[in-house]
What does this fold into?
Amino acid sequence: MTGSITLTMIKPYAVQNGYTGPILAKINEAGFRIIAMKYLQMTLQQAKDFYKVHEGQNFYPRLVEFMSSGPVVAAILEKKNAVQDYRKLIGATDPLKAEEGTLRKLFGASIEKNAVHGSDSDENANVEADFFFSKLERFQLMD
Ligand code: ATP
Ligand code: MG
It folds into this structure.
């Protein structure tokens, strides 16, 4: 059965600290399928475009600076209820408030360096997936 999708990024801080492997393992263990993945560094302009909804917020300049400061791992994850279930797996935005066992609790250092991104709705998941991946870069895995 095919589920819905969500878009994740492993953020620069987590990549730099060697958490890519452990985070991907947790994602697989939680039942998500990786249907697309790439390792890249966003330009400042790309980060501004990706986070456009937050334009005007006081944290926006730091957020886009940080997200373009080093490579990220971007991936499309598939599962039933992907968006909701992935938000549950990653935990609260602030790692200090995130539940035990969540990716942000385990691998996050601060509200900015919170290890991973996860889409907040099905609509945004599709927009964000299209931001990084063409159709040819997506792979539907068999059971
Ligand atoms: P993400 O979109 O990265 O999955 P989120 O949906 O939990 O995180 P958003 O409200 O969308 O949180 O904020 C986007 C990102 O902006 C957060 O992940 C965080 O790194 C940063 N951010 C949000 N609020 C603050 C804040 N008050 N101070 C500093 N950074 C913040
Ligand atoms: Mg968000």
Remarks:
- The longest strand covers residues 33-40.
- The longest helix spans residues 122-132.
